[in-house]
Amino acid sequence: MGMPHTIRKKVLYSAELRFGVSLGLLVETLSTFSSTSTTGLETRIPGQTCSPQEMGCLAIDLAEIVCANSRCKSPYQLAFLDRPIAPPADFDELVDLIPPKFYLPADDNVEKQWVFGMTKREKREARRLTKEHSKKARRDRLDPEKFVTTLQVLQQRNEVAEAHAEKEEEDEEAKAEENGKGDAEQAPVAGTERVKSSQELRERLHKRIEAIRAERRINKARDWQERTKDASKKRKKSENKTTQANKRQKQGHKETGIVPVSSEKVPVASDMEFGRVKIDSQKRTLNRKSKEKLLEQATKLQKDIQDTEKGKDVASKHSWDAALSRASGQKVFDNPKLLKQSLKREHQRREKSAKKWQDRHDSEAQRAQEKQQTRASHIKERIDARKQRLIAKREKKLMRPGFEGRKAGFLNEAK
Amino acid sequence: SHETGEKIPRSFVIGRGKLPVLLRNLEQDLRKLMLPHTALHLKESGKNTLKDFVHVAGPLGVSHFVILSNTKNAPYMKVARSPHGPTMTFKVHDFCLAADVARALLRYRAPPSIFKNPPLVVLNGFNPAEAHLKLVTIMFQNIFPVIDVKKVKLSLCQRVLLLNYDKDTKVIDFRHYAISAQPVGVSRGIRKLVQRTKIPDLRTLNDVSEFVTKSGYGSESEAENESSRVTLPQDYGRGNPASQQSAVKLHEIGPRMTLQLVKVEEGLCSGAVMFHEYGIEENKKKNKKKKEEPVDDMDVDMDGEEQHEEEEEDDDADYYRQEVGEEPGEGKRNFTLLRQVPCF
């Protein structure tokens, strides 16, 4: 065949689409009419791809061939053969050329069958129906009396749709009317019922709570009375003696061991104290007296204490002050003996460190000196060695065999 | 400490002389109380004198000593500040151990986590006008570290030490509690669900709504203490978020003691006696002796104390007879019989 494979396939498909011609038929005709050439086919160069327009022209040519040579011509084929030479001016005529299967959307009313949920019997039945339907459809298709153009089909469908739509509207209106009446009647009734019941419930709840609370209060009062009776019997004497403050204390005791923490409501008892709390950062006193001064003060204090007149007062006052400040963490230097010891220790430490420094200083100087000495001695040694070497070198020259060396002078010469 | 920049006071709790088992247990309980700034496993041998401890205390940064000793009369507890500080001697009328408290309570809970932070201190009834009472307050306030109000974490304040002074009997009640907070205004079931990690047991309920309604609206003890309700400034444990009302509850842990301040001395178990319950004049002989030989007292274990006690016994007996109307030793207050938890 002159046409390459690719063009043949494309042309065949496009022809089928446009003119509803089966593929098999096309293949047959092509094979028989291998030699015939129309204008389009001959000029085709094998391997060349066509544009869609060219494809269309090819398709029309093929269709002509097929229609002319088919045994039983379908209405489409007849229509095609009788077609006017001029292209259709009206869009509607164009539409008529396309079979409704391809032009119009699928009928929504037809439900798709769900095959997987069907039993064997159901499947058999469905298959039978489809077969019958397809047979019928084919007969209808080829029946010239039942021939309906695409436009007519479209019109029919539209009419049906309109009728359906009208019907639905009527139904909806009817429904709406019914519902409206019904709702209006029902709503208020339901609301009032609910409101009543919730109110009732709430009231009941409140009553219940109050009843429980009242019971509890009564029980508690009874217990407390019993407890106080016993307590009063035991402490009759002491209670008479105590003042208001103590009464308060005792009440605090009686409560089950819970001491009220300072809350917004209850004021703290005046004689209650808590752990040490840091509120503002207090500056450390930078005035630290020297130990000598402290010693002076301490000795003075001792003297005052030994002074018989005010000695006791001074002693007691000082001891209490010292105890309080020591308890709160401050150091109190009131013992002259200890102060002296500490001064002595300080002094000794200073001396020791001074001595150490001196020793170090001296030893360093000494070491430096030694180092220099050794250095100088080494240098000297080197020089001497060099000199010796030179002398030896000179002497070597004179150490000829048979000679003893340099002339040393006569034996009995005065040296 | 990092927060306050001040030194953290540390303590040694030691026993002097041979202590009976009960007092040794009390010593251990006191150590637990003073945690975390104390030596929990401090080893003391019979040969150690107070001087040794004082020498060691300096480098370790230990500032306070709590010394327990035993006599025929009663056990004594001394609280002193090292190395030159004042010493307060308390006579222990009654005491009971943490184990006794645990046995007495239905739900004793002292998890080890609460001992990781120092306790708070509350002192009640100590009239600051009286010098010795003032000293006691200051001493106890300074045994525990300073709290920086701005920076402190509320959830770390889990214990409290309560000291209550009774003017008439001149007795100090010493109590140790653990603090817990409970959200207010919720039923018991919901409160437990919020506060604990345990999944509630719904076996006995017919309907889930019963979980909320069964235990009643609101806690049972809610009506009791209006004064224990606080609006928390910070979160405190589970279920107690900040700025919510919570009820503060105390659970007793640790030892209970009934103390009486007997003596205040200038130095560490030495020095002049500044205050004596039964009068300095009556006990002046012993005091003078002590003043002359301050060092000896530190080296001596027990003898000094005992002699001293004999003098006191007469005064004690008279005092007892006057007040109670019974012969001393016949009543309940006998040291050897102390296993009953005193009820208040």
Automatic annotation (TrEMBL), chain A:
Keywords in UniProt for this one?
A: Nucleus
- The record's principal subcellular location, in a coarse class, is nucleus
Kindly list the places in or outside the cell where this protein is found, as annotated in its UniProt entry.
Nucleus
User: Ribosomal RNA-processing protein 14/surfeit locus protein 6 C-terminal domain spans which residues?
Assistant: 213-389
Sequence ranges assigned to domain Ribosomal RNA-processing protein 14 N-terminal in this UniProt record: 91-145
Q: Which Pfam families match?
A: RRP14, SURF6
Q: Which GO terms describe its molecular function?
A: DNA binding; RNA binding
Location of region: Disordered:
160-201, 223-385
Q: Basic and acidic residues bias located where?
A: 273-283, 301-320, 343-385
| A biological process from GO | ribosomal small subunit biogenesis
**One cellular component (GO) term of this entry:** nucleolus
Protein family per UniProt: Belongs to the SURF6 family.
Matching entries from PANTHER family are given as:
SURFEIT LOCUS PROTEIN 6
- What protein name is recorded for this chain? Ribosomal RNA-processing protein 14/surfeit locus protein 6 C-terminal domain-containing protein
Q: What is the lineage of its organism?
A: Eukaryota, Viridiplantae, Streptophyta, Embryophyta, Tracheophyta
UniProtKB/TrEMBL annotation, chain B:
Q: Which regions are flagged for Basic and acidic residues bias?
A: 318-333
What's the source species for this entry? Selaginella moellendorffii (Spikemoss)
Q: Which GO terms describe its cellular component?
A: preribosome, large subunit precursor
Region Disordered, as annotated, extends over: 215-246, 283-344
Please identify the protein, giving its name as recorded: Brix domain-containing protein
* SUPFAM superfamilies named among the record's database cross-references: Class II aaRS ABD-related (SSF52954)
Q: Which superkingdom heads the taxonomic lineage of this protein's source?
A: Eukaryota
InterPro entries assigned to the protein according to its UniProt record, in alphabetical order: Brix (IPR007109), PPAN-like (IPR045112)
A Gene Ontology molecular-function term?
rRNA binding
Q: Please report the stretch or stretches of sequence annotated as the Brix domain.
A: 9-270
Question: What Pfam families is this protein classified in?
Answer: Brix
Any one of the GO BP annotations: maturation of LSU-rRNA from tricistronic rRNA transcript (SSU-rRNA, 5.8S rRNA, LSU-rRNA)
Comp. bias intervals (Acidic residues): 294-317
